[in-house]
Amino acid sequence: MNRNSSCAKWAPSRKKVVPGIIASRLASIGIVFPPPVPPACNYLPVVVHRETAWVSDQVAKVDGELRVFGKVGADLDIAIAREQARTCILQGLAQLSAALGSLDRVERILEVMGFVVSAPGFGRQPQVIDGASERLVDIFGEAGRHARSALGISELPRNAPVEIEMVVARRP
Q1: Alpha-carbon distance 27 to 89, whole Å?
Q2: Other residues' Cβ atoms within 10 Å of the Cβ of residue 34
Q3: CA-based radius of gyration for the chain
Q4: CB count, 10 Å around CB of 16?
Q5: 3, 126, 149, 155: least CB-packed within 10 angstroms?
């Protein structure tokens, strides 16, 4: 990955990951997190302050690369876009796990902000972001239910179709 001089390097936390309830739930439903992807520029993937963690925007990378591009409602259908949203949220949870040491430290998902690159006239952004919301409930149960925004936009970096951010309450 090429980086220009204005972009910072980042390494995930070296905190020991302790398997627990969430790890068991992930294993039982067959979810495996991708490795956390370093940010492309000068920002942190997760900022933790007191009992809140903010997870920076995540796009759907597989093996560290974007593989799906375009506008939902023109180039991509809702099923593909929902899968992209699921991949985004898993990428965000991988970042969160690296920052916290374990997803068992998550008390509740507070908010999800979803951005969907939309063709003119496409208005089903909430159905796209439901892919991520459903995945969070699968993993965290009631603690995965959250406030949410699902916005249609004209473009995202690298021509990604979906991007997701989240705010999480954590246990001290």
Answers
A1: 17
A2: 16
A3: 16
A4: 7
A5: 155
Length of the chain: 172
Residue type, 62: V
Tokens matching residue 66: 């974007």
Nearest CA-CA partner of 84 in 59, 118, 51? 59
Output the tens digit of pLDDT for each of the chain's 172 residues.
Answer: 333 333 333 344 334 434 588 988 998 999 988 889 888 899 999 999 999 999 999 999 998 899 999 999 999 999 999 999 999 999 999 999 999 999 999 999 999 999 999 999 999 999 999 999 999 999 999 999 999 999 999 999 999 999 999 999 999 8
C-alpha to C-alpha distance for 55 and 166, rounded to whole angstroms: 5
